[in-house]
Write a structure and sequence with these properties.
With 504 residues, the chain is mainly β. It has 3 domains: 203 residues, no CATH class; 177 residues, no CATH class; 66 residues, Immunoglobulin-like. It is 2% helix and 48% strand. The strands form 10 sheets. Strands 16, 17, 18, 19 and 20 form a 5-stranded antiparallel sheet that branches. Strands 25, 26, 27, 28 and 29 form a 5-stranded antiparallel sheet that branches.
């Protein structure tokens, strides 16, 4: 892989006073951009995953397709029709917002796909397919689970824990005369059946203020609580809110903040918009931006009670002012091994196009000045201006971002696209769920992998190797380790992934 600083990059830096070098992987696609010109209103790449040496993506909007492409950005034309497989599972129209599409591998080496369909039904679906995109007919109803009443449900998080599908999100009524919103956690087994022993026939709910617009949520299974971030709006005021709920009772957790909430406005009354959430153990990270003449991106760290962790950044907050540009961060903040990567978009002068940026933050909330140019990389390419969250994978020093582009289209509709960066400074941490997953986490004794592995190494936080195991087993005994945080390095078929675990 090679780093390339383009002439266009230099011109942009000069024209906008943005002393910035953009790193693109010119070996990927067409000079760092891969276009997927699926016919019709496909719009964006909703989620991506790497399995072995190949990538798979979920393209969604008016129709849903699985897309397969190589690590050098070439569509696998033998897959489906010219590289994309239509998911023929009913009348579907897809969602466009943040974290509304998910694709992950199951322990039996299939795909689990969760996304939105809109229009007549206004709901979410779950489907299970093999790697070729064909439905597993034994799952749910002929490979398909959907339609939880008349409400529309947005799942912000989908994970497989102990062979159960755990879905975390927000439900919305579709009746304008009786508007209500609620947090929801649902559990299904790997055959698409509700886990009836959980909550009320497989689900738990908690209702919240209808004037709050939710953006993200996280479920703590051990304490049966949920964190939600959103924005409050009425005719007199607006502010961002972080709220915690006891899901057993469906009521606010009054040990958190003030009566279960922490609110945010800046001292100058500029609206501080929290847009993305990440929870690591009891630590809560929220990311977003502050409105004003120049946008300021922020990342805040809170403890389990909603109080700022003053050891992080400046009094609990990292900030980055985006001078001379309009920027927004409906972004995806990922954390692994203590570092953070924020993916968002910038708009310079062309209202119809944005540029993707990457901003790296150290574990202590300080700028990662060894990344890109003073902690930041901006892609020089103009992409479609529709916004939304960007799914991001980091593998070694390669960053792959799912997005959309007007330049990819043959029919004037924005199309799914993927851009790739090469940085040279990143570790082998994978900031998305890797092809080899593990459970449970936290773990007490036995850590199980979803497929046999060739080699596994466990490191403590000082970098000391504490366990090494060369075998084709799919589990490892961690009972001799002390409680704490560890990194697990797994090798399979030449692919190395690093994952963080908590030892109980």
């Amino acid at each position: 892989m090679k780093l390339k600083i383009t002439l266009l990059s230099a011109l942009l830096s000069s024209a906008f006073g943005f002393s910035q070098a953009e790193f693109i992987n010119s070996d990927f696609g067409n000079n760092g951009l891969m276009c997927i010109d699926i016919p019709g209103e496909t719009i964006k790449m909703g989620d991506i995953i790497k399995v072995g040496d190949d990538f798979y993506g979920l393209a969604n909007f008016r129709n849903h397709h699985l897309v397969k492409f190589s690590s050098d950005g070439q569509l696998d034309t033998s897959y489906g029709i010219n590289g994309y497989q239509y998911l023929d599972i009913g009348y579907l129209e897809g969602g466009l917002g943040i974290k509304e599409s998910h694709i992950l591998t199951t322990p039996d080496n299939n795909f689990l796909i969760v996304s939105i369909f809109q229009g007549e039904f206004n709901n979410t679906f779950i489907t299970k397919t093999d790697l070729s995109g064909q439905p597993i007919l034994s799952f749910g109803n002929n490979g398909f689970v959907s339609s939880w009443g008349t409400d529309r449900i947005f799942f912000y998080s989908v994970e497989i824990v102990n062979n159960e599908i755990v879905l975390t999100g927000v439900g919305n009524s579709t009746d304008s005369e009786n508007l209500y919103r609620y947090l929801i956690i649902m559990k299904y087994d790997l055959n698409g059946n509700p886990v009836t022993a959980f909550g009320n026939n497989g689900s738990l709910t908690a209702y919240f203020d209808n004037d709050i617009m939710p953006f993200d949520a996280h479920y703590y299974a051990d304490s049966n609580t949920m964190i939600m971030i959103g924005a409050y709006h009425d005719w007199e005021e607006s502010y961002s809110v972080v709220a915690k709920y006891n899901m057993a009772s469906g009521t606010p957790d009054t040990t958190f903040g003030t009566n279960g909430q922490v609110t945010y406005n800046t001292s100058t009354t500029i609206f501080a918009s929290v847009r993305t959430l990440n929870c690591i153990g009891n630590d809560i990270y929220i990311g977003g931006y502050e409105a004003g003449e120049s946008k300021t991106i922020f990342l805040k760290k809170l403890d389990a009670n909603g109080q700022p962790n003053t050891a992080f950044g400046t009094n609990g907050t990292f900030t980055k002012t985006m001078e001379n540009t309009w920027s927004s961060v409906p972004s995806y903040v990922n954390a692994d091994n203590g570092d953070f990567l924020i993916t968002g978009q910038l708009n310079y002068t062309n209202e119809n196009y944005d540029k993707i940026f990457l901003l790296k933050v150290n574990a202590d909330g300080t700028p990662a000045t060894d990344f890109g140019n003073n902690g930041m990389i901006v892609n020089p390419m103009d992409l479609a201006n529709i916004g939304g969250g960007f799914d991001t994978i980091i593998d070694d020093n390669i960053i792959t971002v799912a997005t959309l582009s007007l330049s990819c289209s043959s029919d004037d509709q924005p199309k799914p696209a993927v851009v790739q960066f090469a940085t040279g400074e990143l570790s082998t941490d994978n900031y998305q769920q890797p092809a080899i997953t593990h459970y449970p986490n936290p773990v007490k004794d036995i850590l199980t992998f979803t497929s046999p592995i060739e080699k596994v190494e466990v490191y403590d936080l000082t970098g000391k190797l504490v366990i090494a195991n060369n075998s084709t087993a799919n589990s490892i005994d961690l009972s001799q380790l002390q409680k704490g945080l560890y990194m697990v390095r797994v090798s399979q078929n030449g692919v190395i992934t690093n994952n963080k675990i908590i030892k109980e």
